[in-house]
Amino acid sequence: MNISYNWLKRYIDFNLSPEELSAVLTSVGLETGSVEEVESVKGGLRGIVIGKVLTCEEHPNSDHLHITTVDLGDGNGPVQIVCGAPNVAAGQTVVVATVGTVLYDGDKEFQIKKSKIRGVESFGMICAEDEIGVGTSHDGIIVLDSEVAPGTPASEYYGLTSDYVLEVDLTPNRADAASHFGVARDLAAWLACHAVESPLKRPDVSGFAPDCPEGGIAVEVADTAACPRYSGVTIRNIKVAESPEWLKKLLISIGQRPINNIVDITNFILFGMGQPLHCFDLNHVGGEKIVVTPCADQTPFVTLDGVERKLSSADLMICDSEKRPMCLAGVYGGLNSGVTDQTTSIFLESAYFNPTSIRKSARRHGLNTDASFRYERGTDPNATVYCLKLAALLVKELAGGEICGDIIDIYPNPVKPFPVELKYDYAARLIGKHIPNNQVNSIARSLEMEITAVTDESVSLLVPTYRVDVQRPCDVVEDILRIYGYNNIEISSELHASLSAKTETDLSNQLRELISNQLTACGFNEILNNSLTAASYYGENSELTDASHQPVSLLNPLSNDLSVMRMDMLFGGLETIEHNANRKLPDLMLYEFGNVYSIDPSVEYTQEKPVAAFTETEKLAIWLTGLVRQPNWLLPAEKSTIFHLKAVVANVLARLGLSAKDIDFVPAESPLMSQALSVVTRSGKQLGLCGTVAKRHLKHFEIKQEVLYAELDWRVMVRLAAKRSVTYTPLPRTQPVKRDLALLLDAGVTMAQVEKVVRGSEKKLLRSVTLFDVYEGANLQPGKKSYAIAITLQDDEKTLNEHQIEAVMKKITSNLSAQLGAQLR
Prior knowledge:
Blueprint: E1 2-4, H1 5-8, H2 18-27, E2 31-39, E3 48-58, E4 66-71, E5 79-83, E6 93-97, E7 102-105, E8 108-111, E9 115-117, E10 120-122, E11 125-126, H3 129-132, E12 143-144, H4 154-157, E13 162-169, H5 180-193, E14 218-221, E15 229-236, H6 245-253, H7 261-273, E16 277-281, E17 289-294, E18 300-302, E19 308-310, E20 316-319, E21 325-328, E22 332-333, E23 346-352, H8 355-364, H9 370-375, H10 384-399, E24 402-410, E25 418-423, H11 424-431, H12 437-446, E26 450-454, E27 458-463, H13 473-484, H14 504-521, E28 525-526, E29 532-533, H15 536-539, E30 564-565, H16 570-581, E31 588-599, E32 614-625, E33 627-629, E34 638-639, H17 642-655, E35 663-670, E36 673-681, E37 686-693, H18 695-700, E38 707-713, H19 714-722, E39 737-746, H20 751-761, E40 766-775, E41 784-793, H21 802-820, E42 823-824
Parallel strand pairs: 14-17, 28-31
Antiparallel strand pairs: 1-13, 2-13, 3-4, 3-6, 4-5, 6-11, 6-12, 7-8, 9-10, 15-23, 15-24, 16-23, 17-20, 18-19, 20-21, 21-22, 25-27, 26-27, 29-30, 31-32, 32-38, 33-34, 35-36, 36-37, 37-38, 39-41, 39-42, 40-41
């Protein structure tokens, strides 16, 4: 939000520089990102002065140029300037751009330099209006009144004033500060806290009065829940015209484009006082009656931008007597009911709408306006009539007209200030410092909180209705502290610490750092995706959900692409892969730690058990796609495969203390993958899944290459790691013994089954089982395949003898034959 330094001074007197003001606003919670100078004329007419033409002669080498001498009032004597204007003459008072001056033509700029024109030297330029930005005429040079002294700066003659714009970043709870007057309120409180009395200057509306008792139109509010207060007034016989300079300058300074006096007045009230207004052309209000009501579902409505939108029955609309929609309440006006140059009578609306209703309508139609920004965060319900009177008086001043009838104000259930009791010792505990009771009370008063009772222990307050975010004692403490100053809370010199047992969270963080370092060292990049994702990922893939496992939907999503909580990590990673692949980076190794969410709709949601229906699980996700090794002079390119992914998963588990003998990769079914393996412990505990992502998911992201994906349950892995310790042992003094076996197996037997049988046959001496060859084809029976495996045996204490080795190998081959039907080749 942009705040004009000069506009702010309309509501409060202060002597702070723009930079000092920026620091003050930041200290009270209105963080200021930048301070920029705004000039009414680009360049501020720097280097341009008033001059007196002493002589004017024809140029010898041109039939339209003149050679002049001009007194610039600098005491250095007259300067020679060649001028091509037809109206230049001796004795004139003119505007001169001196050598070195920069002039602007839109976004282009050029510098006045000493030059030769047709052989004659020229030291400056006598200017026309459009050349310096004070007008649009280019018929000739500017000729001023003769009494203006030479040497007078042009900026002084034209009365140019500079302004400064402060970019204030509002937090969502500070809708009360979304205006110049709202910022002035906080500034006044800060000044009062620092012993500078500078009361707010609230514009006077005491002069408001109807010009005639008749002529006002009727208003009916059919939905008081969505529209708790609706105020309006009728003004006839106005003249729509250009706004005065002061109003245009203020709007331009904050980046708003002036339109006409009526629309500019509504924007002036919006950005000045924080109350959105809307004007209706009475010529387009059927039956001269306003009806505030929802319309039928799918009713067509053309907004000011010319787009036809289909209304929802939940949208609150401003309609005429025939229930024809004229405005999407609090969000956007209609194309045919707004103010134009032909408008002569208006109905001026100032209302308070339910924030939730406005927020849903704005999101539903993808609209974000200055009015909806304020309404959906909560405006002041008790400011509508005041702002309406202020706007009506400005309309009379700038557009003429007559106020017909009194103000219509439909307010069936007035909103009262929020009562809050603040205990002084509670404030001291929360702040960490005792602020004197009288100072607490003084800050509360400066924030326009009414004190109704004071005791030695507490103060009773009524919080104004524009502070919709201050309804609890802790909210009041926060308000008091930001005015008192966070920097005024001293840091204690004492340090309190206690030794406690390491929690699962501590261990999780430690192990996460460990695995992150391991994966990064192996060439992986960590990514961080949004926990919010698109509902379409699950709506189009119903196999990802079931009756007890549904996505968690947001009540007020920011967009359709961020409307549910993610149920898995896959789609965020595919978005990242798509983004990189589109930028010629197809070879990726990625990992992410994050949470996934789901809800069981069959579990009743209650205030006593608000999270009983929800599940939140922490995951470690890994993606591989493209090449894992680029080609070079020694080795060819190597494409990522499921075996690379298995190795990565196994190494992660090994680093956590789960060695190869503790885990199995078992074929499984998954709606996310076309070839899935379930990662389980020997005891049967599920750790996660890994495999090849199904092509139907890749097609959604237009990914044309294979993607390998693993999703592991991080919390289960942490609990298992807590029971294990990763240690090292000295290298054994004995030599290992290796034996190879060539096995003839059924085609359906996997290496995981073979390894499981081998490891189950010998637990003390077995060190490793590896597969080094697979053969299927000629010379084998149909439905058979050949595995060649290498088995490593070792005793750390003594060298194995042949008898021991043969006994182990005989047991292994016997078990392979009995359990898998394996035959030795």
